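WARN retry 2 of 3 for item q-0093 after timeout on previous attempt; input resubmitted unchanged.
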Amino acid sequence: MKVAKMKIWVDADACPVVIKEILFRAAERTGVQLTLVANQAVRIPKSRFIELLQVSSGFDVADNEIVKRLSTGDLVITGDIPLAAEAIEKGAYALNPRGELYSADNIRARLNMRDFMDTLRASGIHTGGPPTLNQSDRKYFADQLDKLLTRHTHGG
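OK item q-0093 returned
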């Protein structure tokens, strides 16, 4: 039985450009199909492995499109914790732009923390945003991506 090759789906509206560039190089190097899903135009290189799926704007339109098209074993690149949870539920992998692999073991805690922070913000407490993506974040993301791709594109 032939196993379907992993595809990578990117929640592209919020994905940092440097992370997209790492993904573009990985798609070219490995031949993995990379689809950026966004509700605005995103620049992508000419490649038979890279495509842009532009969806209409609106709350969670891109997320819903990714979930609809996902297959077991695919990889979703997102910082959106509810989207990561849905991907895991469908048997996919979810990696955030800082290289953290979401899993069935840690996603519930991430959802709870997200809800807690939403509650704080709703009550007027300023929680600040995430720190800027730095060089070590980029390297960690690239390393985690490589591990996943090596494991899942070489049958290992």
